[in-house]
Amino acid sequence: MVIISHQREKCIGCNYCVELAYSQWRMSKKDGKATLIGGVNKKGFHTVRIDDMEYEENKRAAEACPVNIIQVKKI
Amino acid sequence: MTKNKLELMAPAGGFDALQAALDNGADSIYFGVDQLNMRARATMNFTLGDLEEIAQRCDEKGVRSYLTLNAIIYNHDLSLIKTVVNRVKESGITAIIASDQAVIGYAKSQGVDVHISTQLNVTNIETVKFYALFANVMVLSRELSLRQVKEICDGVINEDVRGPNGKLVKIEVFGHGALCMAVSGKCYLSLHTSNSSANRGACVQNCRRKYKVIDLEDGHELEIDNEYIMSPKDLCTIDFLDQLIDTGISVLKIEGRGRAPEYVATTIKAYREAIDAYYEGTYTPEKVKEWFARLETVYNRGFWGGYFLGQELGDWTDSSGSKATVKKVFLGKGLHYYGKPKIGEFKIESQFLTKGDDILITGPTTGVIEMTVGEMRVNNEVVEVAKRGDEVTFGVESMIRASDKIYKVVPAEDVDDKFVKK
Predict the structure, then answer these.
(1) Which residue range forms the structural domain that includes residue B340?
(2) Quick one: which of A65, B178, B338, B382 has the fewest CB in 10 Å?
């Protein structure tokens, strides 16, 4: 199991996560920030659990994020 | 030639800097909200909900307010820019500063006043004429000489270039603050090294670091003589402001939305005095010297006259960060203000405060207060020194608040990692 967390408020809308892990990320047309698909918001941190198969691409998205607000951990 | 007095435009990265700009004589201020501006990383402190308060505070002082919306715009941003432009219209913000055609077009369609951003690098009169179809004010590229600026300003008059409001287009230039090693912000270094695009306001400032050059043929490492080869010194025009005003410009913009409120206070005050002196005929070398010394007290990488005076290449700085001659050391927070006797109460949380110290009080409503501490009391007893943990009171001319922070201002050489040596 892999857990992704996203501190959405700080997103600057660069679109990298969407390019690198399209299965899990979309740009919001409403406010121009990235949205973690299936994410549950707790105090500004959006988290979701995903399959190990998708670890690599989401890890790449986390590393590419210019404002370091994505965390991807194997649990 | 200059019919109207030059407008002094100040940066506002937060409410404290905004107040400092208003209190020190700015004619207009510019600020960003959320992510779509060139300081998305540095200043995240204004939101769309703050627009009314910003407009109101500016209106009270008769100051114009401009919202920067000048990042590169992608499809997914289109809805957000409409929201922002609509909110600008509702809240009474004077204009938006834009570079992307999507923003310019939508703002025009909504009747929102547009200023052309430095990101569009306006460098000739034909470009001015083109953007005059959409905008009443445009900032020129920072890479022009005084002669080129004057030619463009003359061109506006000679060719009668008018904006959508029917008046002659106003030409604006950058007068003070950080310069970029690339053509005004059009740089991809930060994107290449950190995926962090300067054109989305997320520059990691690679140019401000030290580099080594290696000769790949023989492996020699070349030391570059203690110069930060990509980091230009900061622009300062206060010593030739008369020549700059004589070009016919209408607006002087001060850079620095990422800077502290006291930076805004000091810089705006100096330029305010200089502009007023120019119109009163009292702009003298002695005064320039004094303004220059004051500007050196706040954040700077050393000064040069930018490209206005026609230097061939950038003048590189020899320091990684600021060469400010004084530094601020955090002491504590505001507690209470006793209005009648004009006494402020503060909690000292770090270091110590001595009678006679120069201090700085900043906060979102207070702005910036600079003063020297007179008689102090702790627990109703007169003291010479207030230590960490003390709740200290002393006279302060204007109101302070619980949201304020208090700092000691000391010569830069007395500070080591924010710790006072003596």
Answers:
(1) 326-420
(2) B382
Domain that holds residue A36: 2-74
How many domains are there within chain A? 1
Residue B247 lies in a domain: yes
Instruction: Collect all residues of chain A within an 8 Å Cβ-Cβ radius of residue B38.
Output: none
CATH code at position A14: 3.30.70.20
* Chain B contact set for A68 (CB, 8 A): none
Q: Rounding to the nearest 10 degrees, give the CA dihedral for residues B272, B275, B278, B279.
A: -100
Of B35, B75, B78, the CB nearest to A12: B35
Both structure tokens of B295: 């500007």
B272 lies in the same domain as B332: no
In this complex, do B74 and A27 lie within 8 Å of one another by their Cβ atoms? yes
B279-290: average pLDDT:
95
Q: Tell me which DSSP letter residue A19 carries.
A: H
- Residue B244 sits in the same domain as residue B115: yes
What is the model's pTM?
0.82
Q: pLDDT (tens digit, 9 = 90+) per residue, B47-93? A: 899 999 999 999 999 999 999 998 889 999 999 999 999 999 999 99
> Over 50: is that where the pLDDT of A26 sits?
yes
